[in-house]
Specification:
- With about 350 residues, the protein is α+β, with helices and mostly antiparallel strands.
- The chain has one domain.
- It contains 7 helices and 20 strands.
- The strands form 3 sheets. It has a 16-stranded antiparallel sheet that branches. A two-stranded antiparallel ribbon has the order 6-7. A two-stranded antiparallel ribbon has the order 15-16.
Length: about 350
């Protein structure tokens, strides 16, 4: 199945005693299943920064007046400071070879959703997926483990007695679309219920080399929503800048520059370039996400560019941003509804 969906990412403080992980875990099942959510995942950021709460609303999404309150509830659920909305392409069930085209300077971001407990040939599914991608010449992959979430309408919670807990995971891949399109059916064949999303991204840096800075974008959407940009920096935990891990140097550098809208999520497995897929405390991959208005992203990229002079993959993409606490629920609901009513942006499909 190949269809459009909405990706909502909300960011909130890491307050386990408040609205954070525990409350979301307890209430998400009814909200997500009743709202026909394809998948959701709670990712805990390092450095005590923020909790990244990511969900995908999969078709059938219902009419905009019904969908906007659902998105609004999901924000209230996490006590979010702000959220972003993106159009995404969702693939599930039977997946044939997919045509994916990229514009100059673009690549495709593939996200594979699965459970920590999924196995393939008696091996952990996320490890087998990374090994297959490596054999097929894909340039890299990062496996991220959530703390709670849902997949295919089922609640996924950690089992304290098992190392292979039934929590959701996501494997993130950045690669040319044509190359990914060919490998998707093989990836789908590894999983009992495959669930993938695809989005175009702009490649800013690769292996420390500048490709192109984040493009300049207008301040507003066609529907009046504020355009934001998202930077994603992929680097191994062993990559260093000034004697500290690259991802930690980025967070500190951004905070010194007055940019606090960043979070790092450490992966559990992955690879980059010719290195074989691996994990472990000293060699795990990490992803740092910076989300803000375009002028602040331009300032953030100057910091990121200096720190990633020797290591890392940096991408950017345009999102619609909404300050969750500004204007109250009614104003946010209106903004969500207006965004949903806007003509759909097409994804990078042939």
């Amino acid at each position: 199945m190949d269809q459009d969906c909405i990706k909502l990412t909300s960011y909130c403080s890491d307050d386990r005693s408040g609205i954070g992980i525990t409350s979301a875990r307890e209430t998400q099942t009814g909200l997500y299943v009743n709202g026909e959510i394809a998948a959701s995942i709670l990712l805990h950021g390092t450095d005590g920064s923020v909790l990244r709460h990511q969900l995908h609303t999969g078709p059938p999404m219902g009419d905009p007046p019904a969908t906007a309150p659902l998105l609004d509830q999901s924000v209230n659920l996490t006590g979010s400071r702000f959220l972003t909305l993106e159009r995404s392409r969702l693939l599930s069930d039977e997946i044939d070879p997919v045509g994916v085209r990229n514009k100059d300077g673009e690549a495709t971001r593939l996200t594979v959703y699965l459970s920590r407990g999924d196995h393939v040939y008696q091996g952990a599914a996320f490890e087998v997926i990374c090994e297959l991608l490596h054999r097929r010449g894909i340039a890299g992959a990062t496996a991220l483990e959530g703390v709670a979430g849902s997949l295919h309408g089922s609640d996924e919670r950690p089992q304290l007695t098992s190392r292979h807990a039934a929590v959701p995971m996501m494997v993130v891949v950045i690669s040319p679309g044509a190359q990914l399109g060919l490998v998707l059916p093989e990836l789908a064949g590894l999983l009992r219920r495959p669930l993938f999303t695809l989005e175009p991204v702009h490649v800013c840096k690769r292996d420390g080399q500048l490709v192109s800075p984040p493009p300049a974008v207008p301040a507003a959407d066609d529907d009046g929503g504020q355009r934001w940009q998202k930077l994603a920096i992929y680097a191994c935990d062993s990559a260093r800048h000034g004697g500290q891990p690259v991802h930690r140097a980025i967070i500190r550098g951004l905070r010194a520059a007055g940019i606090g809208s960043a979070v790092t999520v450490r992966g559990v497995w992955g690879f980059r370039g010719d290195s074989v897929p691996h994990g472990g405390s000293r060699h795990t991959p990490a992803v740092t996400i910076v989300t803000d208005i375009p002028e602040r992203i331009a300032a953030a990229f100057r910091v990121v560019d200096e720190i990633t002079a020797e290591h890392g993959l940096v991408t950017s993409n345009i999102v619609t941003g909404i300050r969750a606490k500004v204007g109250g629920t009614s104003r946010r609901h209106l903004r969500l509804r207006r965004w949903l009513l806007c003509p759909r942006r097409t994804t990078n499909a042939d």
